[in-house]
Amino acid sequence: MIKQKVIQAIEDTGIIAIARHITPEQVLPLAQALYDGGIRVIEVTCNTSGFLPCIEMLSAEFGDKMYVGAGTVLNPIMAQLVINAGANFVLAPDFNPEVVKIVHEHQRLMIPAVVTPSEMLQACRMGIDLLKLFPANALGVNYLKEIRGPLDNLDLIAVGGITLANTADFAKAGAFAVGVGSELINKQMIADGNWQGLTELADNFVTTFRQGKCR
User: Which Gene3D superfamilies does the protein's record reference (predicted)?
Assistant: First the structure.
């Protein structure tokens, strides 16, 4: 089942790469560079111009080598469009039961954003497997630690303000994974065609998260 394969890939690497405001021309060399650095899960955000062609291209090129998702999915129509384009999973900046319903009808992985314990438990009651703690850095590592006191059965992905400097801290605090945007999808490296630099950066993030988990 594709949902379980995506969850396993997220757990194995600890990193979801968040591609925002990239072009269809950039997306394949970018994804290859990330793949070479150990990334196996990438999302294209829906506020990216040409996000549907990007998802289609990634799905066709990588198949089950790299799982492709859509982020910033705000409504059920958008959810249907990205699933039609080939998205293996869907992320949202909020918790919208209507979006969850559409994604679950297609047996895809849904990762909604939550902040409060009430939101987290409501999402779990709807059959959500992974939760997105957003904005994670603004809430802080200690917030994740406190939440995981009574709710240590929840799998939380820290997203928002994730850097190499705080990745290990979130991993140590119990994050299931982290979602990394501009700190990994380096716009200057992309503009320069520095794909090797992006590969090394991706490898650093994967290694740093794993080291944090072991601490």
Answer: Aldolase class I
Is the confidence at residue 15, as pLDDT, over 90?
Answer: yes
Q: What is the pLDDT of residue 4?
A: 97
Of the candidates 43, 65, 119, 213, the residue annotated as catalytic is: 43
What pLDDT is stored for residue 1 in this prediction? 83
Number of domains in the chain: 1
Stated as kind and residue range, the H or E segment containing 207 is helix 195-214
Q: What is the pLDDT of residues 122-147, one digit of tens each?
A: 999 999 999 999 999 999 999 999 99
Give tens-digit pLDDT for 191-213. Answer: 999 999 999 999 999 999 999 99
Q: What is the CATH number of the domain that holds 65?
A: 3.20.20.70
For the entire predicted model, the pTM comes to 0.97
Alpha-carbon distance 150 to 153, whole Å? 8
Instruction: Report the distance separating Cα 112 and Cα 44, nearest Å.
Output: 15
**Pick the catalytic residue: 5, 61, 98, 132?**
132
Known active-site residue 65: no
Average pLDDT of 164-177? 98
Name the burial class of residue 188, with classes exposed (0-12), middle (13-18) and buried (19+) by CB atoms within 10 angstroms of its CB.
exposed
Within-domain flag for 156: no
Residue 98 appears among annotated catalytic residues:
no
